[in-house]
Amino acid sequence: MPNLPDINKQTLAGALATGTHGTGKNYTALHGAVTAMRLVMPDGKVRECSRDTDAELFHAARVGLGAFGVLSQVSLQNQPLARVRKVVRLIDTDEMLASWPARAGHHRNAEFLVLPFTGKSALITHDVTFDPVSPRGPDQDADTLMSLKRLRDLFEFTPGLRKTLASRLLADVPPEIAIDEGWKLLSNERPVRFKEMEYHLPIERQVEVLREVIRRIESSATDVFFPIEARIIAPDDAWLSPFYQRASGSIAVHAWYKDEHDWMFRLIEPVFREAGGRPHWGKLHSLGAKELALLYPMWAEAQAVRRSVDPQGRMLNPFLEKLFGHDRL
Ligand SMILES: Cc1cc2nc3c(=O)[nH]c(=O)nc-3n(C[C@H](O)[C@H](O)[C@H](O)COP(=O)(O)OP(=O)(O)OC[C@H]3O[C@@H](n4cnc5c(N)ncnc54)[C@H](O)[C@@H]3O)c2cc1C
Fold this sequence. Notes:
The structure is a single chain. The protein is α+β, with helices and mostly antiparallel strands. It folds into two domains: 12-80 and 287-324, Uridine Diphospho-n-acetylenolpyruvylglucosamine Reductase, domain 3 (2-Layer Sandwich), CATH 3.30.465.10; 83-279, Vanillyl-alcohol Oxidase, Chain A, domain 3 (3-Layer(aba) Sandwich). Helix content is 34%, strand content 23%. The chain has helices at residues 12-17, 55-61, 93-106, 141-155, 159-171, 182-185, 206-220, 262-274, 289-295, 299-309, 318-324; strands at 34-40, 46-50, 70-76, 83-92, 109-115, 120-128, 176-181, 194-202, 228-233, 248-256, 278-279. The strands form two sheets. It has an eight-stranded antiparallel beta sheet with strand order 7-4-6-5-9-10-8-11. It has a three-stranded antiparallel beta sheet with strand order 2-1-3, covered by helices on one side. Helix 2 packs across helix 10 (299-309) and helix 7 (206-220) runs antiparallel to helix 8 (262-274). The longest helix has 15 residues, at 141-155. The protein starts with 11 loop residues before the first helix and ends in a 5-residue tail after the last helix. Flavin-adenine dinucleotide (FAD) is lined by residues 5-7, 10-11, 13-15, 17-18, 20-21, 65-66, 70-71, 190, 280, 282. Flavin-adenine dinucleotide binds next to helix 1 and strand 3.
């Protein structure tokens, strides 16, 4: 596959249905590679669709949230294997933010994780190489996260000390380098459970919004210790794609699964919304049909296809009813 998300444990259908993406200025989300689909429709009939056959269904159901039928077969335009060099290194967050547009344009895949309350960010890049394989070592991310959690547990009340100790903890971390086939390096293990809100913004707003998100977390959500993640995604033309006709910069905030996450809705979502962000379909957000219709130029067309294939709302559950508007017949 041309690109991969942060984990590779999902089903392909689940990933496509929610607009799952990786990062890279020239790479669309996974559904950008779909060339044809076979769907078992709500009435039990089977339909095949592509750009040339049943094109409206193809455009509406490529990012379909499970509402257009059950995907039973999919064709993807994949690519030959690419060997990549993965580099993870820590950079001062101020420098990271200032240099991000240039860095993002420079690498095949680039993303960064702002480590709040530390002044540091982890830049992760992947670039094609023909150098010999040098496999990745054991995953350090979970240990780093738990160290950041311990700092939070002990020093949340004193941000200055928390930051000083964090800079010591992170001072001597050497860059992590691995060379291998892309599919072995682009996705990761994520053993620590978390909750997440991710919005996809017009790319030119990403850095400015990120600065405000960091400011709000560091001043009003001091229990956060999980990183804030920034990625870039190329535009595509699926009607319900959060990247529909828009080069996007995504920002994701996370909370440990046992911690409160109401701050995401209170402090962060309004900033994402003000910037015209579209929420990740598979993560936390508070939007309903009225707000979503304003964010998606082809919303009405997609709804018309959905109603025509599922007039009785058989594919809807309460969550989808809120997203699409409650219009069961
Ligand atoms: C640790 C972790 C890391 C993640 N990293 C990323 C990331 O890097 N980038 C990103 O964009 N997302 C990421 N996600 C989100 C994840 O990709 C989505 O939530 C994805 O939908 C999960 O796939 P699933 O197979 O679990 O699907 P489910 O959660 O089971 O289903 C998701 C949706 O797909 C529909 N669906 C499932 N199967 C079918 C089918 N056969 N036909 C039609 N509809 C179907 C369901 O109805 C539902 O609406 C991550 C999630 C986790 C937990």
